[in-house]
Amino acid sequence: CKNPAWVQANDFSFSGLHNPGNTGNPFGSAVTPVTVAQIPGLNTLGISMVRIDYAPWGVVSPHYHPRATEILTVIEGSLEVGFITSNPDNRLISKILQKGDVYVFPIGLVHFQRNIGHMNAVAISGLSSQNPGVSTIANVVFGSKPDISTDILAKAFQVDKNIVQQIQWRF
User: Fold this and answer.
1) Where is the Cupin type-1 domain (predicted)?
2) Less Cβ crowding at N or C end of the chain, within 10 Å?
3) 65 is in an annotated binding site
4) Does the annotation flag 111 for ligand binding?
5) According to the annotation, is 18 in a ligand binding site?
6) 70 is in an annotated binding site
7) pTM strictly above 0.90
């Protein structure tokens, strides 16, 4: 925490959310966070936000936020969004959203977004934590340091160990 006598307006502001993120990556998406890391004044306030830019057919890979519910608003374009309920049902709850539509991803559930249009799309999400965290499923499972044993992952995914090793090598 900062000494209140040293607090300034810059501790409560962020500039640049109007700038598109760079979607020139394998996922075709870019997330611009506005969390306590960017605005120290969010500390203890329980809120944050992100801007998400999507190239045509770009995705935000399946992930979850361990400390936040997310509410997403489509600003431009059309998105396919969804989340998966917990075990044992693992139901996919999904919808196609248009400009102005809003969707909620409950805390801790795996969710995703995909631009289904031929033009760029933009969304803004609010999160119920100043530090929501993000765990991208593929990165967590295949990119852990040190690696999860290939025997464990091969059995869990019911695939050959060579396939697991090839995927782990990419991360």
Assistant:
1) 15-165
2) N
3) yes
4) yes
5) no
6) yes
7) yes
For the CA atoms of 30, 36, 40, 41, what is the dihedral angle to 10 degrees? Answer: 110
**Residue of 27, 31, 116 whose CA lies nearest to 79:** 116
Query: 134: closest CA among 167, 156, 112, 103?
Result: 112
Token output for 83: 């989340």
Q: What is the pLDDT along the chain (171 residues), one digit of tens a residue?
A: 788 899 999 999 999 999 999 999 999 999 999 999 999 999 999 999 999 999 999 999 999 999 999 999 999 999 999 999 999 999 999 999 999 999 999 999 999 999 999 999 999 999 999 999 999 999 999 999 999 999 999 999 999 999 999 999 888
